[in-house]
Amino acid sequence: MKETNLREAIIRYQPAVTSESSGQAAFQTFASAECGASAMSTGIVTLGCGGVLPYHRHTFSEAVTILQGKAQFEVEGRRYLLRPFDCVHVPTGFPHEASNASPDRNLVALWAFASPVPTRELVDAKFAVEVRSDPRPGDPENILRFGKASKYELADGTEFLDLFAGRFGAIGICGGYGRFGPGSSLPCHIHEYDESITIIEGEAVCEVAGKRHHLKAYDTAFVPTGRPHRFLNESSGPMAMVWVYAGSEPARTIVDVGRCTGRAEGERGNNN
């Protein structure tokens, strides 16, 4: 795989102006066509108490991961309660709505679209509401409950789980959660697609082709196709992220660590 000429982008989180007592929605876009992404976009939406993002739909897959608070999420009237790090995937064309289910704190959620240009089409429709704990067989949406997800280790001191992917119905995007203990990191690696990484806990060091970036508190790194990178936890506490790939299933090609630090080159195998 050849390294792209496109460089990484670091997008700093800007705290929303939405207050705890307001239903106002605030958006911040992270990865998108504006920073060079070609097949996906990510960002954060913040809803104050009583806030609602009314029924809308997209012409591409969407995944929503709750970062803070509780969400009431509806798909054609099927209503679910989502808690931190629960994730819902909605396929192309299905109307859905999100609202803040907490009486005393903001709702913060990370959205991921299988399109570099984030767009929404409002839907003027009424649906009969049916409260459900989880989708039933045949329902188009998929919900991954964080507490029930299968976890795996990609390196010593790390814990990963997949939140959305092709095997869960997503098309063109996949993503997950990764937690790093103090002193841990993944090997230097590359992908065959763009990646967006949002830090949701602690502080991270992002090494990309010889450059080091420090991220925290919803700061996001966009790493384009073929760009060697790794994340390190050099702090004394835990660090966690939500990553999104512009591909339907996760895959990583391990390369020499020098390609991340800027001191050497050379590939050494594959790790999916």
Describe this structure as you would to a colleague.
The protein is mainly β and 272 residues long. It folds into two domains: 19-146, Jelly Rolls (Sandwich); 149-261, Jelly Rolls (Sandwich), CATH 2.60.120. It has one helix at 258-261, and strands spanning 9-11, 25-29, 41-47, 52-57, 62-68, 71-75, 78-82, 87-90, 96-100, 107-113, 121-122, 130-131, 142-144, 158-164, 174-180, 189-190, 195-201, 203-208, 211-216, 220-223, 229-232, 239-245, 253-254. The strands form five sheets. It has a six-stranded antiparallel beta sheet with strand order 1-20-17-22-15-14, with no helix packed on it. Strands 2-3-10-5-8-13 form a six-stranded antiparallel beta sheet, with no helix packed on it. Strands 11-4-9-6-7-12 form a six-stranded mixed beta sheet, with no helix packed on it.
What Rg do the Cα atoms give?
18 Å
What class do helices, strands and sheet pairing give? Answer: mainly beta
CATH superfamily of the largest domain: Jelly Rolls
CATH architecture of the largest domain: Sandwich
Average pLDDT confidence is 92
Could you give the order of the helices and strands?
EEEEEEEEEEEEEEEEEEEEEEEH
Largest sheet composition = 6 strands, antiparallel
| Strand count | 23
Total of DSSP H or I helical runs spanning 4+ residues = 1
Number of domains: 2
Distance between the termini: 15 Å
Unreliable spans = 18-22, 266-272
Q: What global shape is seen? A: globular
Question: Spatial order of the strands in the main sheet?
Answer: 1-20-17-22-15-14
Could you tell me the strand content as a percent range? Answer: 35-45%
What is the CATH T-level topology of the largest domain?
Jelly Rolls
* The first-level CATH class name of the largest domain: Mainly Beta
